[in-house]
Amino acid sequence: MELREMSESCENQEKDVTLNNNGATDAAETTKNENISGEATTETPTVDNIQATEADDAAPAASADYSTLDKPGLVAALEEQLQKPIESIRDDVNLIKIAFYSLRNAEIAAEKEDFLAKGNEEAAFAPKEDADEAKFKALLNTIKEKRAEYNARQEAEKEENLKKKQAIIDEIKSIVSDPDNINKQYNRIQQLQQEFKAIGEVPAAHVTDTWKNYQKVTENFYDLLKMNKELRDYDFKKNLEAKQQLCSEAEMLDNVDDVVIAFRKLQDLHNQWREIGPVAKEVREELWARFKEASAKINKKYQAFFENRKEKEKENETAKIALCEKIEAIDIDALKSFAKWDDATKTIIAIQEEWKKLGFASRKVNAELFARFRQTCDKFFARKAEFFKTMKEEFAANLEKKTALCEQAEALKDSTDWKKTADKLVALQKEWKTIGPVVKKHSDAVWKRFISACDYFFEQKNKQTSSVHQAEHANLTAKREIIDAINAIIADENETEGAKKVRELMKKWQEIGHVPFKEKDKVYADYKAAIDKAFDKFDMKEIRAGLSNFESSLSGTSQDKIYRERERLVRSYEQKCNELKTYENNLGFFNAQSKGGNSMLKEVERKIQKIKDELSLLEQKIKLVDEKL
After folding, report:
1. What is the pLDDT of residue 33?
2. What is the rounded distance in angstroms from the CA atom of residue 19 to the CA atom of residue 40?
3. Residue 345 included in any domain
4. Among 83-92, 483-492, 533-542, whose mean pLDDT is lowest?
5. What is this structure's pTM?
6. How far is CA 625 from the centre of its chain?
7. The domain containing residue 543 runs over which residues?
8. Cα–Cα–Cα angle for 449, 450, 454, nearest 5°?
9. What's the number of domains the chain is made of?
10. Does residue 148 surpass a pLDDT of 50?
């Protein structure tokens, strides 16, 4: 190899002289302006800056998921990173820091909200000291110090390597400057070459110049050295075979699917190329052109790969910013009902699913965007939990009040002091109306409990007025006859005045008085079923107008208004039930045998029937509202 280098250097010197004499570009200057693909550009990674390119553009290593850890866990994770080499923990430290301060910022926000809720001024707020944060900051400072020490050592080592290599170059220069004793220095040159190769990296800014200076002085040495042609040709042949093998390997890299792996392998091939000595002058340019062409293909793929990745990261960044803005645009203060919170929650979850489908943005903004997105989501769900907690407490208080009324009604239901107890129960019913709603799953049960106690008392009270039983049974018979008559009109296919007859029968129904309590629900259900069939057959729309108009008014109405409408209907229903009970209770005070008593009794019964019809309509409206919720 030594003989080969001597001979080839002589030829190189001749070539350089010829090029300069013909006005061609200096070989050293050409090398400075060309990258491994042969293109004069500063954007494509070159062999000379392979180390910097690999460090900056290599795909990020997979890191652990720290988002599930609490603060002590994150502190422990940071302590664990300190046990690893400082040059390998940068990404993990950044992720741990983001996760830790996401939790800490949430705590501070909660402290501040509590501080302001107590009536304090915002300017007076100061976060409480946090032991985990103090320890966390101390660990970060330790890491920073270690990294600074590491970087300082690396730079110092590279500067020392630069001095060593420059010293070798200077010594070779001094040897070349004494051509009379050039043959005696061959072994020393070989030793200096081995020492040069053994020396580590130099500062990136000096890599190219140092190598070119070394190459130049080495070639000058071999240009001056005259060796045996046979040994030189043998050395050239070995170098040619080695470089042809490198060309073949470089050309095969074009078939490697992973561009990053191919580029790294190409870097290794270029390092091997530099270590191999020169070849015969007549094949030197052709061989280098072949190797450079193969390198250019990989280099272009590598450049295109990172440009495409950069473009995709930019698209992901734009999409993530849009999702952040979309989720931040949700007005949390406007969410005042369960339905609105549920709708907003579905929107948040849908946006989170979109986020999961997006890839990484650029390193410098990806973590920042995730922290921004996560903070907004956390704020939303914290406010939602607060709202539901408040509503739950309010509903629980209402349930407690209504339960207390149930207990009072149950304590009175067996009383035989009819007048006094009736007044107390009516007062309890009025108080019931003033209490707000309870959770839907308890509302029916507590209402049934309360009304059952009231009904039981009034049933017992009504039993004491046995004088009206016979009239009630007569009324029951009359009402059943009306139901039968309505059904007969419906069954008559030739009926032309069905609507008129049904209205007359409805009027008679309203004029009929009270029926036995245990039969009232069944007979009214049969009556309502017959009336519904008559409505359908004779197209009696006017009676249903109120219900139809109500159903139309619900269209396009917000969930919050629908919920308030249901509360209003329930209160109306309870009010009508109380009115009905009052009228039914009053029946016991009428003396049907007294003068004018019968007409008053019928008037009360007519009002009772009207209230029942209104209750039926309210039940249907409440059912429509429940379907909308």
Report:
1. 33
2. 20
3. no
4. 533-542
5. 0.30
6. 33
7. 397-628
8. 115
9. 1
10. yes
